[in-house]
């Protein structure tokens, strides 16, 4: 499965969290404002990153800025 391979893939780039104000879901438990995360996969709408849980999760790009 592709998502299991993401745990061993090197990061594509890094992004920094600028806000965690989600309209629908609570993301403040998994993302910390000001912290830098490794992107393991990117789509048009999402970044898939290793979040605070240590697992890979998909988040809207609106929470981040590229470094």
> Low-confidence parts lasting 5 or more residues at pLDDT below 50?
none
Q: How many structural domains does the protein architecture include? A: 1
- The proportion of residues in beta strands is 35-45%
User: How does the major sheet shape up?
Assistant: 5 strands, antiparallel
Spatial strand order of the main sheet:
4-3-2-1-5
Compressed to H and E, one letter per element, the order equals HEEEEE
The number of helical runs is 1
- Work out the number of β strands: 5
Compute the average pLDDT.
Answer: 88
Please, what is the oligomeric state? single chain
Which percent range fits the helix content?
under 10%
By CATH, the topology is: SH3 type barrels
How many angstroms separate the termini?
A: 29 Å
- CATH C-level: Mainly Beta
Pfam family, one: DUF6501
Task: Briefly characterize the structure.
Helices cover 6% and strands 37% of the residues. It has 67 residues and is mainly beta.
List the helices and strands and how they pair.
Elements: H1 2-5, E1 13-17, E2 36-42, E3 46-50, E4 56-60, E5 64-66
Antiparallel strand pairs: 1-2, 1-5, 2-3, 3-4
Please characterize this protein's 3D structure.
- With 67 residues, the chain is mainly beta.
- The protein has a single domain (13-66), classed as SH3 type barrels.
- It is 6% helix and 37% strand.
- The protein has one helix at 2-5; strands at residues 13-17, 36-42, 46-50, 56-60, 64-66.
- The chain has a 5-stranded antiparallel sheet, with no helix packed on it.
- The longest helix is centred in the first third of the chain and has 4 residues, at 2-5.
- It starts with a helix and ends with a strand.
- 15% of the residues are buried.
